[in-house]
Amino acid sequence: MNVVKVQKQQYVTIKGTKDGLTLHLDDSCSFDQLLHELEEMLSLKQYIQSGPVIGVNVKVGNRFVNKDQRVKLESVIKQNRNLMVETIESNVMTKDEALRIKRETEVVSVARIVRSGQILKVKGDLLLIGDVNPGGTVIATGNIFVLGALRGIAHAGADGNGQAVIAASLLKPAQLRISEIINRAPDHIPSEGNEMECAFINNDDEMIIERLQQLTHLRPNLTRFEGGI
């Protein structure tokens, strides 16, 4: 009689990196099974508290981990060991998180003139079809694109995004600001021509004014279009 030995499925994989440990946790088993196997694997003597603290990055795949489960994972990993949880990464997010990301990345189109004393503020990218008059202000957490004259104040990356850009058909602002970098009087003032220009922050944290055509090289991730002509 042949006896078939069934190998136990492994739910936890531990990989050492130069920055610490990465734990890959299976997303097909129950959470309790996961905790049990994680406890068994970490009970090996090399993980008992001694020596310097080791950073741990936890990857849970397509499993949603709520607040209580995160606390349990951290407790099992840290208990009497020289391990510290740095991140817990999941491919799954809540509906609220998805809506927040959508708001922050969407393009808000507005057709109007922003006059002196007026402030137009949006989350995400702003596409303004109109002018920003002297004394007017436009603010966006993302990029700012003005299909018109920008003669007032523009603040892009208002939540700290230093990769944001400001572009306009006519770029003659009173002040430009990207994240925390302010440029009150751009070194290069565009001529009264038809050439659109843009402002961006370079690697030296300096605000630079360039022809709009340079944006594809400066910020290749600005467009999601990958087709060819």
Description:
Strand 1 (12-17) and strand 2 form a beta hairpin. The longest helix has 12 residues, at 31-42. Helix 1 (31-42) packs parallel to helix 2 (67-78). The chain contains four helices and 15 strands. With 229 residues, the protein is of the alpha/beta class. It is elongated, with a radius of gyration of 26 Å. The strands form three sheets. It has a six-stranded mixed sheet, with no helix packed on it. The chain has a five-stranded mixed sheet with strand order 6-8-10-12-13, with no helix packed on it. Residues 225-229 have low confidence and may be disordered. The relative contact order is 0.08.
* Largest sheet properties: 6 strands, mixed
Mean pLDDT: 83
Biggest β-sheet: strands ordered side by side in the sheet = 5-7-9-11-14-15
Radius of gyration: 26 Å
Low-confidence stretches: 225-229
Count of individual beta strands? 15
Helix and strand run: EEHEHEHEEEEEEEEEEEH
- Which class best fits the helix and strand makeup? alpha/beta
Helix content: 10-25%
Helices, by number, come to 4
Q: How does the overall form come out from the CA principal axes?
A: elongated
Binned strand content? 25-35%
Q: How far apart are the termini?
A: 67 Å
Short note summarizing the structure:
The protein is α/β, with parallel strands linked by helices and 229 residues long.
List the helices and strands and how they pair.
Blueprint: E1 12-17, E2 20-25, H1 31-42, E3 54-59, H2 67-78, E4 83-89, H3 95-105, E5 107-111, E6 119-122, E7 125-129, E8 137-140, E9 144-150, E10 153-156, E11 166-171, E12 175-178, E13 181-183, E14 197-201, E15 207-211, H4 215-218
Parallel strand pairs: 2-3, 3-4, 5-7, 6-8, 7-9, 8-10, 9-11, 10-12
Antiparallel strand pairs: 1-2, 11-14, 12-13, 14-15
